[in-house]
Amino acid sequence: MRQVSRLVGIAATVTILVALMAGSGKGAVRSQAWQPNGDGHAPSVNGYALPGRVLGHRDQPVPVARVSALPVSGDPALTGPGGEFTLYLNEGGNYSLLAWQPNFGPLPPMKDVLVPEPGSPPTLFLPPAGDRIADGGLEAGDLSAWHLSGQTLPALVAGSHTGDWAVRLGGVTSVLAQDVDPPGSAAAQTLSLLYRSETLDPADDRVAVTLSDGVLTATHTLPLTESGWVHAWWDVPQGMGPALTLRVEWRLGPGAGPGGVVLDELSLGTAIRGAVPAYLPLATRSRPAP
Ligand SMILES: [Ca+2]
Description:
Layout: E1 48-56, E2 66-70, E3 77-78, E4 84-89, E5 93-100, E6 110-115, E7 123-126, E8 147-149, E9 155-157, E10 166-170, E11 173-180, E12 189-197, E13 206-212, E14 217-221, E15 229-235, E16 244-251, E17 260-270
Calcium ion (CA) binds at residues 108, 137-139, 160, 162-163, 165-166, 264.
């Protein structure tokens, strides 16, 4: 029996998609306006494409994370195997980006993302589920969860990586510390943070991140030569803990000018391994000849 397919007539709308790489819009894609259909309805058009990445607190790609923009302007996106995403937005403007994946903890929105994006594509770092650090995102509006000390006390500042607030350490000495409760499981733990250097003398100034259980101590020094937000993470040494004290200390170098460091998204939690792409063999099937 032979089937005959029928082509149903649809009022054709000629659409021309024009990709423009605007000088200030790296990766931006614009389209020419659609012509209305026969019923006068004009379909919506995604005028801009915003690429980015979602990584975990160990810098590993997070696939199948949901990424959306506020104000709503287009559909949410899902990340691919490499944590990459592309948000298609109807209009350019100033957006907040939200990323969510059920195996990770909540992340405040990344604010003031300009579209077209004049800088590098945004990267969001999801914190671990069951994050052990209290107010690691500095979003409580005060620093009551932290112990503050030094000649200049750490202070909340705007210009965060995500959310409304970050914390700045500066002056001659400035210390941010917290006693961290034991974890809920014996799984390996990872310490993670975002930092932005404001130092004028990166060779002399020093930021030391220390974890200690009272017996064992692990200290890491943050390189201050890079500009912009930098992600740093370290696996907690085996045998350390379970209760820990986290301490971040800023110390101005001798003869250096004024400077400081801004911190955000401090987290300590289970070191979830990222996904590894798997390539399955392609199986073909052929019908035997009659
Ligand atoms: Ca924050």
